[in-house]
Design a protein that fits this description.
About 20% of the residues lie in helices and about 25% in strands. The chain starts with 5 loop residues before the first helix and ends with a strand. The protein is α+β, with helices and mostly antiparallel strands. The protein contains three helices and four strands; from the N terminus they run αββααββ.
Length: about 110
């Protein structure tokens, strides 16, 4: 969880985001994996603004260091880093916490 205020945004320390992690596995497979979701959340003190105002904070396609690092390690043939199985980057709907903001999934 990383939340910033307007001063932090001006200093380029944003955007605000949250993450959640799920343990997952394929049916009939004993190997476990991890699904992580990154979601842009409203900046501090803006949670209750109108959706239109929160949408002004939207960043369509940020790159989280974890995603880029796993991609590079996989391209380099790393055998010690977790294998990146899937990445999906999308935008939140008009009813999202930050309409038009990002939501990224990785497995």
């Amino acid at each position: 969880f990383h939340r910033v205020d307007e001063v932090d945004v001006a200093r380029k320390l944003g955007p605000s985001w949250a993450t959640i992690e799920f343990e997952c596995y394929r049916e009939n497979d004993l190997k476990k994996g991890v699904m992580r979701i990154y979601l842009q959340v409203p900046n501090l003190k803006t949670d209750f603004r109108t959706p239109h105002r929160r949408a002004e904070q939207a960043i369509a396609s940020p790159t989280h260091l974890e995603i880029e690092s796993l991609k590079k390690l996989q391209l380099m043939g790393s055998t010690v880093a977790p294998k990146l199985l899937a990445v999906h980057q999308d935008k939140q709907s008009d009813t999202g916490s930050v309409p038009g903001g990002y939501i990224n999934y990785l497995v």
